[in-house]
Hints:
76% of the residues lie in helices and 0% in strands. The chain is mostly helical. The chain folds into two domains: 239 residues, MetI-like (MetI-like fold), CATH 1.10.3720.10; 267 residues, MetI-like (MetI-like fold, Orthogonal Bundle), CATH 1.10.3720. α3 packs antiparallel against α11 and α3 runs parallel beside α14. The N terminus is likely disordered.
Amino acid sequence: MITATRRRRSTAPPALRLAGVALAFLFAFPGVYLVYRALRDGTGPDGLLWSARTLGPLWRSLRLAVSVSACALVLGTGLAWLTARTDLPLRRLWRVLLPLPLVYPTFVGAAAFIRTLNPGGLANDLLAYIGITTVPELRGFFGAWLVLLLMTYPYVYLPVAARLRQLPGSLEESARMLGDSAFAVFRRICLPHAGTAIGAGTLLVFLYTLSDFGAVQLMRYDTLTRAIATNHLANPPVALALSLMLLVLAAAVVLAERWFSRRLPDGARSGSNRPLDYRLGRWRPAAVAAVGLTVFASVAAPFIALVDWAQRGVLRSVTGERALAVDYGSIADATFNTVWVSVVAAAISVAAVLPIAMLVGRHRSRTGSLAHAVVISTFALPGLLIALSMRFWVLRTDMVLELLGDTTVLLIFAYIVRFGSLAMGISVVAVRSVPDRLHDSARLLGAGPVRRFFTVDMPVMGPALGAAGGLVLLSVMKELPISLFVSPLDFSTLTTRIFGSFEDAFIAEAGLMSVILVVLSFALTWFFVVRRQDHT
Length: 536
């Protein structure tokens, strides 16, 4: 039986290897085409790449990304330690609430803070009531930094909290017996063993900040993404130069993180040894205040602002007052479009990465390993660059323009390239979870490959593949740049409608659609992220 298993894993069917190569090409195409387009149009080192028009946005992008990721590292790691390894009151409640900023697209959070602090906003009115009449405008670097920090710290918090809960208490007990203080134990034991989780989470924050468009656009902070969006029609060579710079920067950061993480210890497994909890003592009130303030600023305050805008529009329509602009028909259409395109993109994403997952997880194929690396690397490709690549490809290829120019096919393809990597890791785990003995038994009973797939593989892999699809679904629903630049002219999603309403100052309509999107995102985040925390 062992021989059969090894033979099966070492020899992948030719059709499966061919599918892996084809899928890897499709995932790599947007990035490769963008580089080809940029170099062909003369935006290389001797062109616009190092001109003043690109170095300014590059510096601002780096400044913002480094600031946000460094602060998210400190905030996310601190919150993870408080909720995972201390006697913090209401720990289970905080574990539910702290990941919830993931339900907000960053531009929704940005708009909530801007509008709430502006004259007529809820926070502005409350401050005026207590005598504070001058409120600084939340714009530029500080506004973008604050919003992105509050919306992205869960990317550090979640993996670090999971790692700290797995760390065996025996290591810390030994250090305490040797006379180390609690801070010394945290610095010498916890941080090194959580280093890979901290690095991975910080990398996600850095890449997210680097690729963000909505928040920096509303905050009027000129980063690479905002400059690309501004120039992609008026000055394509400049947009391509900026895109190439952003692509190279993202790739360099990923490679640097990989190099650094390989030099960190893998960390010990928890086994049966329960993690050690620390007593906060006199610091408990300060810890509760810090966690509570974070939850209020990142979760409660934006939601209160959105509900306030939504109820103003609805109540005025009901009571017959001067109604605020709310187009309920368009809201219903945008909601329907968001749901169906997200479901289709999620389903196709899982189906697309499954052949590669089977090459890696079952056959250990070199072709599969290469295809797997290509798909995972697309996570570093910002959505705006994928959208820009698709636009240039369509506009400069007559046949593609005629066939796909105003369809949702390109939109769904762009979603798959952007978020297929989210489904890849879980799909590989799902494939490896199928016991080899089930395949051996099915083969002995005469079942062919197709029948074994549907009767043996799918029942075992189904829950994990569903989780993979759920993560893609959640991400597609919140995606802005791809939806904004690749959607057909008569096709709107909740994100594009919300962004347009904020830009046009239709606050009631934007608030109502934002509440719908946040509620849908909350349901998915609860099911696929929060509910699974204690099982990591």
